[in-house]
Specification:
It comes from Novipirellula galeiformis. Belongs to the ComF/GntX family. InterPro entries: ComF/GntX_DNA_util-trans (IPR051910), DZR_2 (IPR044005), PRTase-like (IPR029057), PRTase_dom (IPR000836). The protein has 294 residues and is an alpha/beta fold. The strands form two sheets. A four-stranded parallel sheet has the order 1-6-5-2. It has a two-stranded antiparallel ribbon with strand order 3-4. It is globular. 34% of the residues are buried. Bound molecules: zinc ion (ZN) (2 copies). The site of one zinc ion has 8 residues, from helix 2. One zinc ion binds next to loops.
Length: 294
């Protein structure tokens, strides 16, 4: 092929790419005019590259820095004991624990909130404190009509997890399933949408690995002890091809996504099932975590 012909082909390809990009941006401009981009929480008009208005974004992310400095085992924000809501400083006890975590080989050593607890998961990464507008967002994201909100929460969680797990990357993402009658009432599975958005941000697969084996009462209605009994043996690995085959989880580091972490009873029970099925490690990734003051 002559140099002249090759140069002409390259120019044509560049030109067609520019035309396609121009058509795409023109299409987006028309869509923006017909359906102006709005905050996924309060419906205020926003720029097309945003998910939330500035006021909602500020309220949602107010605790993000504090939560990133939390216990590497249970995700509890150590600095909250200082009564300093935005964590301008950790107390001495918390600082000592953080130091011991960095010395540990692989297993995080925990904090006063989780010492003595037995977990089947390796660690918890909690993005935000379950409080105020974060509660409204998490509850709304459970409903299918709010799937763009669930998707936005999942993409942000994916960014946080990519940073927090950069040296220990998971190989699969899955999610905590809910009982089918609850899915039917809500019209969908918000947590699955969040998990899919996390997986696409991290660039790893997100198979539906689990199912509920029986009806489960809402954990929010129960005390700590009742929560443990409520979820005991309530989850199973979803089998493919009838009962003949389960997915091979051996040597997988599974990122288990949920919307809220409260006592950890549900996450721990699901992690137990995944470990029994062969998973090498289970890490929990949640949009929000409750914070206990005691
Ligand atoms: Zn807003
Ligand atoms: Zn802890």
């Amino acid at each position: 092929m002559s140099t002249l012909l090759a140069g002409t082909i390259v120019k044509l390809r560049v030109a067609s790419g520019a035309v396609r990009r121009g058509a795409r941006s023109a299409k987006n401009a028309v869509l923006d005019l017909a359906f102006p981009p709005a905050c996924r929480l309060c419906s205020q008009l926003i720029a097309s590259d945003r998910d939330f208005c500035q006021a909602c974004w500020t309220a949602l992310t107010a605790s993000e820095r504090q939560m990133r400095q939390g216990c590497e085992r249970c995700g509890h924000p150590l600095g909250c004991r200082t009564q300093d809501p935005l964590n301008q400083g950790l107390d001495h006890q918390a600082a000592v624990i953080l130091e011991s975590q960095s010395d540990a080989e692989d297993e995080p050593s925990g904090c006063p909130q989780c010492q003595g607890e037995t977990f089947h998961f390796h660690r918890v990464v909690a993005m935000w404190h379950y409080h105020g507008l974060v509660c409204d967002a998490v509850v709304a994201a459970k409903y299918v009509s709010q799937s763009p909100l669930a998707d936005a929460l999942g993409r942000r969680l994916g960014v946080v997890l990519a940073e927090q797990l950069s040296e220990d990357r998971p190989t699969l993402v899955t999610y905590v399933p809910s009982y089918f009658t609850r899915q039917w009432v809500r019209g969908g599975v918000g947590v699955r949408t969040i998990a899919n958005a996390v997986a696409s941000t991290l660039g790893i697969p997100s198979p539906s690995l689990l199912r509920t084996a029986r009806q489960i009462a809402k954990q929010a209605w129960l005390d700590d002890q009742e929560r443990l009994h409520n979820v005991l043996d309530a989850f199973q690995i979803r089998r493919r091809f009838g009962v003949l085959r389960s997915p091979d989880l051996s040597n997988q580091h599974i990122l288990l996504v949920d919307d809220v972490f409260t006592t950890g009873a549900t996450s721990n029970e699901v992690a137990k099932v995944l470990r029994q099925a062969g998973a090498r490690k289970v890490t929990i990734g949640v949009v929000a975590r409750t914070v206990r003051s005691g």
